Amino acid sequence: MRRVLRLVPLGLVVALAATVTLLAPSAPDRIEPLFAWSSPSAARLLGAGEGGVDLLSVVSHAELRGIVLALAVAIAGFVVGTPLGAFAALTRGRTERLIERGCDLIQAFPTFLLALAVLSAVRVPSRLHLGLVFALTAWAPFARLALVQTRVLRDAAFVEAAYALGVTRPRVLVRHVIPNLLGVVAVQLGSAGASIVVAEAAFAFVGLGPRDGVSLGAVLDQGVAAMLRAPHVLIVGALAVFVTSSSMLVAGRAIEGRVR
Amino acid sequence: MRALRAAFSRALEAALVLLLLASLVFFALRLLPGDPARLVLGDQASPAELAAVRARLHTDEPLVAQYARFLSGLGTLDLGDSLRRPGVPALRRVATALGPTARLAALAVGLGSAFGVAMAALAFGPWLGARRRWVERGLVALAAAPLIAFAPLLTFALAVKTRLVPLPGDPEAGTLGLVFASALLAVPLAAHVGRTGHASLVELGQGQFLVVAAAKGAGPGRVLFLHALPAASGPILAVIATQLGALLGGAVVLERLFERWGLGTLILEAYASRDLPVLEGAVVAAGALFVVVQSAAAFLHALLDPRARS
Predict the structure, then answer these.
(1) What is each CA distance from B22 to B18, B26, B27, B266, B279, in whole angstroms?
(2) Could you tell me if residue B276 is inside a domain?
(3) CB proximity list for A123: less than 8 A, separation 6 or greater
(4) Domain closes at, from B90, B116, B143
(5) In whole angstroms, what is the distance from residue A19 CA to residue A48 CA?
(6) Are the Cβ atoms of A105 and B17 closer than 8 angstroms?
């Protein structure tokens, strides 16, 4: 029961953001210069930002898009990394060491620089570009976990029995090892998702975000520029990043409980 | 002999990281769709202007020749002139930016490790009693707090509203500004060091050598700092090494937040204005900074923990 409760914060964030985007018709990029930087009021619950955009609308849209991006990348990393790590541990020997070193290298790699290097090929990076760049490194933690876990499983009696019955290695991988890994490796989904939400905000903050400005990082950027005139923008942006990333972390721990 | 081989393989790996980064920048700019000259000049450029920029970037040559020129340029520290500031070598601009970022990152690594180790010691040692759990929980919460959310808030509260510290981007901010910026950057690192340090201390807690030290009359402080912490230095230094990439990303965010001059500012400026030689040089320099600190961590580990030397 407590496990399911851990999904509540993420569910609440998504439900709130979805309700706002569906019910409140004000588009996140609708400009009303009359209300620029205006404080929170009954009409604009979170106030307005640069050019009078409704912050509630911007934050809701940005949260939804950020969460979708994070889930997509984290799941892609999970789907690629788990079989790769399991395969490496099953083959043993040189392949195993090579893939392990590769994971170490990628996990310690300055991801921000890597992303900058790749993004420099496009004029205005879109969310899709960002997702592709994040996916370049997202598989490594999943592969690492799967590798460590398979080292335990590969000597288990049921794996040896499968080999003895003449089951081929790919089939052992798919039918016997991977199903036993899923629970343990999926624990990583939450922290991977949270770090992607934060990374997306960081890229938008330094000016490498989607051009329409619908990103939590863009809200923070506005907030920093107007810190003295309109501190509410900064506070709204920072809280939104914090709430989104920590709700994902907590949701990830819901899976952890199920494993034990 | 073994130590020499370990050092050699570490140097090889460092060179590999740098080569990988450099090649990624290089090929991303040349292989992915989009003509670099057009990216630099925009859509309205005349063919003659485009040809001139192509000649300056050597993008009219075969790719292999360009790559060879780029690599030898890295080797001889000459990547050509900056596109936006003709006559200024790209690497001279990179060199002026390397110092501030290196100071920021080095101080953040120092502060983060010191604070993290202190937290780990507090959470493990006998001084706080049952309140040790609070330190542990605090570390978990700190590790989950994203820099991008709390750094602007703290800056607003401490530097803008109450003016307790100067804004680090202010040229007159001096040392206090630098310390404030690095302290912000050090928070996630400290949390990770604290958690890992505490976990490995708990694991060592059952070790006989600690019981022996206590039996010989060493106080809890002496046991902790002289016997337990050096043995726990491996995981601590390993976590510092894995957090360095994130730290470098955080430095870019902070430099942008404070409008402080450094590698991050230069990279973003070169990115926005498509100054390819400067962009390539700055990304490689940031990678070099990362590699140097990482190797320093490995060296320190060998110095502190005799087991790592063999």
Answers:
(1) 6, 6, 9, 17, 10
(2) yes
(3) B34, B39
(4) B90
(5) 19
(6) yes
**Chain A residues close to B150, C-beta within 8 Å:** 238, 242
CA B197 from centre of chain: 20
CA angle at B3 for the pair B2 and B4, rounded to the nearest 5°: 90
Q: How far apart are CA A222 and CA A205, in angstroms?
A: 9
Q: Tell whether A205 lies on the interface with B, counting CB pairs under 8 A.
A: yes
CA distance A109 to chain B (A): 6
The pLDDT tens digits for B129-184 are 788 889 888 998 888 889 998 999 998 888 888 888 887 777 777 788 889 999 99
Which of B148, B154, B271, B289 is the best mutation test for A, with the most CBs of A within 10 A?
B148
Question: Does B102 lie in the same domain as B200?
Answer: yes
Q: Is the pLDDT of residue B297 over 70?
A: yes
Q: Which two tokens stand for residue B154?
A: 């703290």
- Residue B101: count other Cβ atoms within 10 Å of its Cβ: 26
As a residue count, chain A comes to 260
Asked if the structure places residue B5 within a domain, the reply is: no
Identify whether B190 is part of a domain.
Answer: yes
B102 and B205: one domain? yes
User: What is residue B47's three-state secondary structure?
Assistant: helix
Q: Which helix (H) or strand (E) holds B31?
A: helix B2-31
CATH of the domain at B193: 1.10.3720.10
Contact list, A110 vs chain B (CB under 8 Å): 21, 244-245, 248-249, 286-287, 290
Same domain, B202 and B266: yes
* Longest pairwise C-alpha distance within chain B: 83
Q: Examine the domain organization and report whether B20 and B100 are in the same domain.
A: no
Rounded distance, CA A84 to CA B198, Å?
32
Using CB atoms, which residue from A110, A202, A238 is nearest to B153?
A238
Mean pLDDT over residues A121-133, rounded?
82
* Cα→Cα distances B245→A32, A106, B105, B239, B266, Å: 41, 10, 11, 11, 18
Q: Is B168 in the same domain as B42?
A: no
The H or E element containing residue B103 is helix B90-124
Which amino acid makes up residue B104? L
Same domain, B188 and B140: yes
Lookup result for tokens 């937290």:
B119
Q: Are residues B118 and B70 in the same domain?
A: no
- Determine the distance in angstroms separating the CA of A169 from the nearest CA of chain B, rounded to an integer: 32
Per residue in A56-91, pLDDT (tens digit) is: 888 899 999 999 999 999 999 999 999 999 999 998
Task: Point out the domain boundary residue: B41, B59, B90.
Answer: B90
Q: Is A215 on the interface with B (CB under 8 A)?
A: no
Distance (Å, whole) CA A218 – CA A237: 8
End-to-end, the C-alpha distance of chain B in Å comes to 10
- Does B171 share its domain with B69? no
Number of domains in chain B: 2
Domain that includes residue B58, residue range = 10-90
- Would B1 be classed as within a structural domain? no
Contacts of A99 (CB under 8 A, 6+ apart): A84, A85, A88, A143, A147
